[in-house]
Specification:
With 757 residues, this protein is α+β, with helices and mostly antiparallel strands. The protein has 26 helices and 18 strands. The strands form six sheets. A five-stranded mixed beta sheet has the order 2-1-3-11-12. Strands 5-4-16-15-14 form a five-stranded antiparallel beta sheet, with helices on both faces. A two-stranded parallel sheet has the order 6-7. Helix 17 (375-388) runs antiparallel to helix 26 (701-717) and helix 20 runs antiparallel to helix 21 (526-534). It is elongated. The protein starts with 26 loop residues before the first helix and ends in a 40-residue tail after the last helix. Residues 100-298 form the Glycosyl transferase family domain. The chain crosses the membrane at residues 26-48.
């Protein structure tokens, strides 16, 4: 609920105002009492002097020197919003939010007066401050009693009113907002020191609070701010954690046992069932003793009946600990998406001046973050990933990713990988199945330094080819050679690689010397695209890729060598999904977004990052690229993914395999959703065509995963016709059928037919 430092009004049940101090005294009575206090002060010393001052102030009598000292203390307490946990949600189809993870420094959920059980409110007053509704902020009787008892050698007593305790908690809260550890510790020591000076300041501030706020409001905020052990703060979080219920639904014995914790959280908390003194075997004896004392006080002050007391005392303490969601590791298969969202929040200036401040403010601000995650697609991605790619493989640092984005909006719909999420180095050291690195995203967003996309990158050369007036049926010199000659580069000047003996091969050994652009696209012919690049500008190819939002995952500029034409830049899978969504969106690329709404603790909407949609190429160029990429699905290297996707809608796609089968990709889109499925080598080398998983060859796992996700996407979102423009009839690429490596993705041996770099 919204936090309102001034909103202590009738809505909070604040029928009693600051006129709650109802004890009327005669002048003679007060003077007599003061004389008695002065006499006792000889014995009790400073603590009683501390108590005398507010009594004099409240009585309205003289004692000028003491009153002057007291009145010169600050009487205004600057109350900041409470630190509350923030939550990240996905949303079900019916609009129901599903919690992915929570983040907090203090696990607190602020609630209103009517959201707190009357049992809890009455238990606090009866046990902590029975005269709460009678005094003006300082309970003189309680303070005097505690001071005298302490001074004569009895058990040390606090004697603080609820308002004084609230003041202390507010001051501690201010200290905890200090980002510098040394200053935070100094502040904490000062506001918790057992000294008369601290006590006097708290009294003065308590009186100021009572002048400003109604009683019920003070009690409500006390129950919201106070600690219940560990990182659990406030009655709502305590009810959630210890009993799996809400503050409003607390029963009498539950409420009393929670209020018991306030007296000494370390001693009375209920989350250590193995404790010898306060554990399950002993019926949580220490807490029960304090609970039963509180119940007796509630009877004494007529908050409950004798019958209610007997029933509550007879009931056992049975906590039902509900561990709160803490960080993205609790989001299961959605943990890497959750991690991506946290990086977006760190980069959002709404939350502060730098990423550390932003994350800190988010953890304390009580925000509800509603994300773009589509749970249907996400669950399909998680399921197919679990079946098709293991978390570990002997001798290979295997990684795998699936990412989906919505065409036309940039909304990230799914994101998963073949690892368990953990940011704890100790946990990561236990198994290669754990990592905190998100393989889907850029390094600056918690990701890796990227992976070579192989032949999927060729679509940008194809787009540049059409953009500069070339046709799909135009042929180029595509013979394999080591002397390609000089390439045009308008940014860096002419480039020649002949001295490097650069001699890229084709995957199936194709040696044809005169492929068309369409043939090269369908068969993913490396030498065909290099021949196309000879007629283009390497800088122009790079700029076209950048127009589709493509960038290196490590933050460096894209390389624009001839080798880069066939996919040597390391990019994030999410980047490729966004680019293909741009092709399917008639050449308009929308930057990725993962947050739909943010609601602050006060209920206000917080501005969220928006997608930036730009025209990467004109619609005619996009239609030409679509023409070729649709036929990659039906007649080219992506036939296996096409054949396994149902229901059918118009689809575009491109496969990619890097040198030696180290990484294998399938990237494609409908008019609604774009998806990447890839199996990659996180470190080291692997020849995927020589490796088999339980589900089948490693090299074709992409073609088992991509259809599983896109089938769900097609069923849910459908798919419109994709405008296309190209030559007719379709020319099927020629292959050297005698080559033993020549095969297609839907052949019996399941090998790939897209080219290596």
């Amino acid at each position: 609920m919204p936090w309102d430092p001034i909103g202590f009004v009738d809505a909070w049940g604040g029928a009693m105002g600051t006129s709650g101090f109802t004890e009327h005294r005669t002048a003679v009575g007060v003077v007599g009492g003061l004389l008695g206090l002065v006499a006792v002060s000889v014995v009790a010393g400073l603590l009683v002097t501390a108590a005398v001052t507010p009594v004099v102030a409240l009585s309205g009598l003289g004692a000028a020197n003491t009153i002057t000292v007291f009145e010169n203390l600050p009487g205004y307490l600057d109350i900041e919003p409470l630190s509350q946990k923030s939550d990240i949600y996905a949303t079900q189809n019916d609009g129901t939010p599903v919690l992915l993870a929570s983040f907090y420094d203090q696990n607190r959920i602020e609630v209103g007066w009517d959201e707190i059980s009357p049992y809890a409110r009455d238990a606090v007053v009866a046990s902590e401050d029975p005269r709460f509704y009678e005094h003006g902020g300082v309970d003189a009787q309680g303070t005097l009693r505690a001071a005298v008892t302490t001074a004569v050698g009895g058990v040390t007593q606090g004697g603080s009113s609820i308002t004084q305790q609230y003041v202390k908690n507010v001051r501690v809260q201010k200290c905890e907002l200090e980002s510098d550890e040394r200053l935070r510790r100094q502040c904490y020591n000062a506001v918790t020191a057992t000294t008369p000076d601290r006590k006097i300041k708290e009294m003065r501030l308590a009186i100021g609070v009572e002048k400003k706020f109604p009683k019920n409001a003070i009690l409500r905020q006390y129950l919201n701010i106070t600690g219940f052990g560990g990182t659990v703060y406030g009655i709502e979080a305590a009810a959630n954690y210890y009993y799996g219920t809400t503050a409003a639904a607390l029963t009498l014995p539950q409420a009393a046992s929670l209020v018991a914790i306030l007296n000494n959280p370390a001693k009375f908390r209920l989350d250590n069932p193995g404790s010898a003194t306060n554990g399950e075997a002993g019926g949580y004896a220490v807490n029960k003793a304090r609970r039963d004392y509180i119940l007796r006080e509630m009877v004494r002050y007529e908050k409950i009946t004798a019958a209610e007391y007997r029933a509550a005392v007879d009931s056992p303490i049975q906590p039902a600990i509900q561990e709160p969601s803490t960080g993205c590791q609790t989001a299961g298969g959605s943990a890497y998406f959750c991690d991506y969202v946290t990086y977006l929040l760190r980069n959002d200036p709404v939350f502060g001046e730098d990423d550390q401040t932003r994350l800190q403010n988010f953890r304390r601000g009580g925000y509800d973050v509603y994300t773009s995650l589509d749970l249907d697609l996400q669950l399909a991605a998680e399921a197919t990933m679990a079946v098709n790619v293991p978390m570990e493989y002997p001798g290979w640092d295997v990684g795998s990713v699936i990412t989906s984005v919505q065409v036309g909006t940039g909304r990230v719909l799914a994101m998963t990988q073949n690892k368990r999420y953990s940011q704890d180095p100790t946990v990561q050291a236990t198994s290669a199945s754990y990592t905190g690195v998100n393989y889907n995203t850029d390094y600056a967003e918690g990701g890796s330094s990227g992976f070579q996309p192989g032949s999927t990158y060729k679509v940008f050369t194809l787009a540049e080819w059409l953009k500069t007036g070339h046709r799909l049926d135009e042929r180029v010199d595509s013979a394999r050679k080591a002397n390609w000659g000089t390439f045009n580069d308008s940014c860096r000047g002419p480039q020649n690689y002949d001295s490097q003996n650069w001699n890229p091969r084709n995957d199936a050994g194709e040696s044809g010397g005169n492929y068309s652009a369409l043939e090269s696209t369908l068969g993913s012919i490396n030498t065909g695209f290099i021949g196309m690049a000879k007629k283009l500008d390497l800088c122009g190819i790079r700029q076209t890729a950048e127009a589709f939002g493509v960038h290196r995952a490590d933050g460096d500029p894209l390389m624009q060598t001839a080798a880069a034409v066939i996919g040597t830049n390391e990019v994030a899978p999410l980047t490729m999904a966004v680019a293909f969504a741009g092709i399917a969106n008639r050449g308009v690329t929308c930057s990725p977004i993962a947050i739909d709404r943010i609601v602050a603790a006060d209920g206000d909407e917080v501005p969220v990052p928006t997608s930036n949609c730009v025209a990467s190429v004109n619609p005619t160029v996009a239609a030409g690229v679509v023409f070729a990429m649709r036929r990659v699905m039906t007649d080219g290297t992506a036939q296996q993914s096409w054949g396994a996707t149902a229901p059918r809608v118009p689809l575009i796609g491109k496969t990619g395999t890097t040198d030696g089968g180290k990484d294998t990709w399938m990237v494609g889109a409908s008019s609604k959703v774009a998806t990447v499925a890839a199996v990659v080598s996180v470190t080291g080398e692997a020849r995927q065509r020589s490796i088999s998983f339980a589900s089948g060859p490693a090299a074709t796992a992409r073609h088992r995963m991509w259809p599983a996700v896109m089938s769900v996407a097609n069923a849910k979102y459908g798919g419109d016709e994709l405008p296309e423009l190209g030559p007719a009839p379709v020319i099927v690429p020629a292959t050297d059928s005698g080559n033993p490596d020549d095969s297609t993705d839907n052949s019996t041996n399941n090998s790939t037919d897209d080219s290596d770099d």
